[in-house]
């Protein structure tokens, strides 16, 4: 009983939340650089406020992030000390192709990631690489309108061809798009989409989604051709929508919310759009931008595994009078009276992870990979600079128990588990540093002040023990 031998324990970060060095060594500007802290952040993420360059009156935490660009050797050594078997990271598109539409890549960017992958292998850590973690070069946003334009499929294909060939033998596990369903929730953050006033926002988002799905299938095709050993995954932002009551209308509402996210994975795993999505778009008079060959491409080049993020569950209702939503990873939710919440209002629900695993596995019969799970909290160092984060250990241990139950009792095939933010990084939703996830504290605050010094928290040694016992010893 328990996790199989070779289970991939580790942690996950993204380039834009960790690297910094936004203009070093030829890197171009990207949409993810232009998310300021403060009142305008949500409007920018949602594609409602146009911010295509830096505003001197705003602070942009991704510019420097936690400076992993210059400190990755130190950080990977710390991951190795915990016993990581896998490290999930992402490639910044604009490091490889600074503008996005060049014919030739930026060698400095290619070399940077090659160095990281080799550093991982030095410690027998398997890299798990997200090709784009929301990144879009700003030149592609301004010149082509980002993913609403079919040309981005070609530019993405060029990126994939370059990295699959360059990193053959260094990387086996890939994810095509991070949380692909977030295009519908936060279009500028997830896909570089600013919605013009005259546009049909839904039509733009679904067109961009189709282009990303086609690009994902192309990436899968290229990866398997370059190296049959490559394992290509898709990724869903999962949040287990529960009906507020047993009223059938609430249950149906929860199913509709679930389907809005699952349709992406339906396409990537089954190779075709589900009927419920086609009918919904038909009712809205939205025509997907299919071109000749798309259907065959989607059908013939499906993914090898399903990755997903899970932090909390949500509650939905068909009753428009039910208001008072609480915070939660860009997904609105009514409060759940049976659950406690994090400092940021995310409802803590370990059983929801097991429910989600069952839902996804029973739907697709593909191996699963939990590539994000973690607790954002306001960690306060004591007088010695130490953080006794028992609350994080409690959150993670309960989720790992639920994950283990899904494997032991429900027969779910699970490849691995990467804790989100094994080192403190910039929050994607809020831009804060004080919303910390890591086993490693980074001396950096919300105003961009600090030394970047790395310090182990109590959870560091706890997670090392978890990995060493293959998930059997979860005690604090």
UniProtKB/TrEMBL annotation:
Residue runs in coiled coils: none
GO MF terms, alphabetically ordered: beta-glucosidase activity
Record-level GO BP terms: carbohydrate catabolic process
Annotated SUPFAM superfamilies: (Trans)glycosidases
GO cellular component terms, semicolon-separated: cytosol
Superkingdom, natural source: Bacteria
Pfam families, sorted: Glyco_hydro_1 (PF00232)
Phosphoprotein recorded as keyword: no
Keywords: Glycosidase, Hydrolase
InterPro entries according to UniProt: GH (IPR017853), GH_1_N_CS (IPR033132), Glyco_hydro_1 (IPR001360), Glyco_hydro_1_AS (IPR018120)
Entry keyword annotation includes Hydrolase: yes
Active-site residue list: 372 (nucleophile)
NCBIfam families noted in UniProt: PRK09593.1, PRK09852.1
PANTHER family given in the database record: 6-PHOSPHO-BETA-GLUCOSIDASE, GLYCOSYL HYDROLASE
Entry similarity comment: Belongs to the glycosyl hydrolase 1 family.
Official protein name in the record: Amygdalase
Organism: Paenibacillus typhae
